[in-house]
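Summary for the lay section of the report: proteins are chains of building blocks that fold into shapes. Here we show the chain for Alpha/beta hydrolase and then a coded description of the shape we predicted for it.
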Amino acid sequence: MTTLSEWVPPATHGLDLPDGRRLTYCLYGPDDGVPVVSSNPTPHIRWERPDVIEAYHRVGVRVLSYDRPGYGGSSRQPGRTVADAASDVAALADAQGWDRFAVTGFSGGGAPALACGVLLRGRVTRCAVVAGTAPYDAPGLDFFAGMSPDNADGFRLATRGAGDFRARTDRVAAEVLAELAAAAPDGGRLARMRAMLLDGRDGWTDDMVSLVRPWGFAVRDIAVPVGVWYSPDDRNSPPGHGEWLLAAVERAEGHRYAGGHEPGPDTADQVLRWLMA
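The coded shape description reads as follows.
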């Protein structure tokens, strides 16, 4: 088993798009594994933790984890919508020769995964959303019910636009990195967090703004099996969001897990095996 202190950055690949942007990504798991495109949480980059990589190998999935625009080495795409993720994912899958593939998204990556399920009809086989949020304007949902004050403040600030929210990312990134450095964590974790928070501030900002604006597609139009994992104790993406998605998506299956926002390794294995079904 690879320990966190032994972690080194995996090989990074790049894809140049017709509009002049560049996307960066990493590939994990066995070469012949079931293809899966992973939409990372907000904020996050293409580098996965060792325990997550081990799960990919254990289950047998070939995962493409990419930097959304504005993160890591991916060019920023100002004003992007959630729906814009689908064309990027299609281009990344084309570059791998993947005609059919599953998609998964955790937290802020849940909405982009849903976009692929709706807009890449005929290519996406299954869509797993873990601790994802519902649309900001979801009918019948109190978006902030059960949400932590800090997370709620972030979403409210994002409604004011990228400029206001970017100031928040600068402050939060500096505070988090200072705390991590003082705690003397392992070098691998600090390297990932620095890349995520410093090189991902534009992506973080654009993610949040896109989540509180119209997504560019209707969730109810998704036509592939959807697995919705949510926790009753989650204060970042409260359970009402998962319950709303289950009610809105005809072919959705609900799965509850304990422990708050981030699921444990057993849930990760369950999600990956569900994607392979």
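Put simply, here is one thing we learned. The CA atoms of residues 85 and 271 lie 21 Å apart.
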